[in-house]
Amino acid sequence: MISIGTISIAFLVILWITWRAWTFTILPKLRPNAPKQLPYAIPFVGHAFSFFGNTTALALRGRRIVGRNGKDVFSLTAMGDTIHIVTNPKHISEVHGNNASFSFHEFTEDFVKSMGLSREGISVTYGYGPSLPSWFLEKPNGFTWSTPDKSFAELVRQMHHAVFWLVLTNTNTKLVFRLLTYLLHNPELISAIRDEVAPAFSGEGLDFKLLDYDYVGTSDQCPTLDAVWCETLRLCTNSISLRCVTQDVVIGGKLLKKGSKVIIPYRLLHLDESIYGPGADEFRPQRFLEAKGREKTRLFSHWRPFGGGKSMCPGRHLAEHALKRMLVIMIFRYDFEIMGDATKIPECDETRLGTMPGTGAMSVKEGQDFWVKITESGAKGRFGEGEEWLEEKMASLQLLGITKL
Ligand code: HEM
Description:
Blueprint: H1 4-30, E1 36-37, H2 48-53, H3 55-65, E2 74-78, E3 81-85, H4 89-97, E4 102-103, H5 105-114, H6 119-126, H7 134-137, H8 152-166, H9 169-185, H10 187-197, H11 213-216, H12 223-236, E5 240-245, E6 249-251, E7 254-256, E8 261-265, H13 266-270, H14 273-276, H15 286-290, H16 293-301, H17 316-333, E9 334-339, E10 348-349, E11 363-364, E12 371-376, H18 388-399
Helix pairs in contact: 5-8, 9-12, 9-17, 10-12
Bound molecules: protoporphyrin IX containing FE.
Protoporphyrin IX containing FE binds at residues 104, 161-162, 165-166, 168-169, 171, 175, 237, 239, 241, 305-309, 311-315, 318-319, 360.
């Protein structure tokens, strides 16, 4: 006699097999223009766990299994949402260039809603309000707001985005750690940067105010510093662009339906050997230093730590400015010596929730912190007036495992 329990389980198994066959075998044949779905086991939940666990690994798997190694857009499912993954550089440009079909606002709206902004507040903010007064727009010394339509609502929207993305300033602490880590493990780069940056200091001492950033910030005058910056961001960020599909649109021959979401995971580009050559996962700033002409254009057109398109990070110059300056001052004022094994470079943690998905720079893998001895360098200069924050930053490095002994 078969029990009811056995019958129920058999029924559920048949139901599950039917669902799998329908979703991943029959439907794709009926809708050849829809992006192929990466199969999953639990309906509705889909890839939610691996998505938040390690987006890069999931995207790599999808690209290999259903994305024809980057030729096609493919789809994931997470908590009932369909998310299209775009990895082909040509398709990425199509997404960036099509503001009519892809939008970023929905995500910031959701964010401010979760922060407690009322429905009325959102409708005022995200509707178009009165124009900004001209005195507000005309700011002295060449500074202008990047508000395309100069409406008050657009300004407030940008400020909301800033709040959202300022979360990324934790990126800066992580990036100082990564930049320093790579330099300390490659001391010949420190000497090269010290040599090329030296003319940027005017007068006596190593005060911030005496550092000519225009000099430090250009790749012509300080190519090693620039190459270290580019290579560090290439290897240590897992940035994404997130878009909502606002009307049906075809990308790379695949139909993306209104209401679905799109993710562009730039880390896949950054680790692509067909772009960055063999050993694309290794720190080798020479690849940026040595590249010329078309090769250089190719490297930079795939270098996307700051995203792209309409919502490309407006804070990128600020971040570069602050981090390069800080790095220069640090390596001029201090000598660093790694205590212990100097051959093992701490790896990035792609799996930690705090760095996933796509929040910019990644954390260091648990247990891979290391100790350094920091001494005042022979170069002159103490912290100048108003530079106490640098001392605070140095202290914050201790949390990440770098410490004064
Ligand atoms: C190294 C540090 C940083 C990284 C890696 C980074 C990365 C990113 C990325 C990947 C995006 C999304 C771009 C896209 O949608 O395609 C973004 C957007 C944004 N970032 Fe940054 N960011 C950094 C620092 C900053 C800073 C310091 C600020 C503010 C001063 C800032 C302000 C913004 C804003 C306002 C947006 C939203 C733009 C929009 O909605 O149009 N970011 N950032």
